[in-house]
Design a protein that fits this description.
Distance between the termini: 46 Å
Shape: globular
Strand content: 25-35%
CATH class of the largest domain: Alpha Beta
Low-confidence stretches: 1-5
Structural class: alpha/beta
Mean pLDDT: 90
Number of domains: 2
CATH superfamily of the largest domain: ANL, N-terminal domain
Number of strands: 27
Number of helices: 11
Amino acid sequence: MLKKNNLFFKSLEKFKTKNAIITENGKYISYQELLINSEKISKKLKPKKKLVFLLGQNNLETITGYISFINKGYTVALIDFRINEIFFKKLIKLYKPDYIFSKKNDFKIKNLYQTILKYKSYILLKRKKEFKKILHKDLMLLMSTSGSTGSPKFVRQSYLNVNSNTQKIIQYLNIKSKDVTITSLPFTYVYGLSVINTHLFVGATIVLTNRSMIEKIFWEIVKNYKVNNFSGVPYNYTIIDKILKKGLPNSLKYTTQAGGKMNHVLIKSVLNTYKKHKIKLIQMYGAAEATSRMSYLKWKDVHKKIGSIGKPIPGGNFHLINKAGQKINKRNKKGELVYKGKNVFMGYAEKLKDLSLPNLNEGILKTGDIAYVDQEGFYFIEGRKNRYAKIYGVRVNLAELESILSDKGVDTIMREGNENKIFIYFKNLSKANKNIKYLAKITSINQNVFVVKKISKNNLTNNYKFKI
């Protein structure tokens, strides 16, 4: 039986014959077929609220399972399918999930679980010996904070969180049932999942692929199925800027960007490319702790407010606080950005007992980002709170150093080294020395403090963000 607080059951049933999914090999799946297949999985599940680990990827099995578990009222922990077996077994030992839905024979856990259903390339595993646990009635999702590294820390998201954020995103992006999107981001990434949720909610169509934007076939899929929107992080836009200036598909109407700050030079270049193709760029700001998104920059403002995260989403609010926690009322004065909205998460989970905790945040999120608001009410992120290095006794804000080079179109990551050193990781070393000289001149920091390092492809996370 479907739960009344379920996100999807009311909307999906009314779309029936509309196409919900197009697989990479060209198979069309209607909403009716999607619901029928999800019910097949649901019938194998116990009616009482349970915890399920879903090892997700951009395929039909993951979406079908996701809808099934949510419709059943279960708490779903979304875990990247690429997780190492050792890390995964640690999570199992810590959280003792009642069910696991994953690709066949991915993990050797037959001593604890038995197969109760096979669905295409996935199997549904049930725990042999039930472990009693208390799950908060409002707890819908557990989103990993670490991609596939196996951290036990999850973000606890409620039905209200997901429902609220989904509807607000639909509102400001004006997503319609005629829209066609593509899975350009991982399903288990909160940004990628929000694309799935918003398009399912309105009866739109989702093209499923695990292909990267760097592959030619990705763009052939976009063209063949007339995809009119996709989402990306800054890394995706470096690909668009370098490879596709003359070859963007005609079907594209808009794309969205979040997942980190995009440097000013890249933004301007992408905007120039998009202008030729009549495509809109919608930039946004969000976090897993806000169930995805907190603000967006309207298309009409993107050219005059380069680098801004825009204004809060409908129903959300921003304000800034100083180090003493007092509200800052002056414009153009820096402080920690605080968000208020129904999409603010319930709190973190680091162990099984945490899954029974109530909402600890009450709609308030201290983002940890340092920002300011201009005279017209547009917000700008300047860096992260507490990202400091101590150089010869003087505190240096690493985020501000990154921002200085970012404005020149240079992507870097700063890390505190030892013995009064700052490590600077560059994507491209060809102009590293020149940029270090510039940074030293601007900041009056001795050039010898900076140590050059190279960012390699291995430094990309599964969400296409840079890591060290």
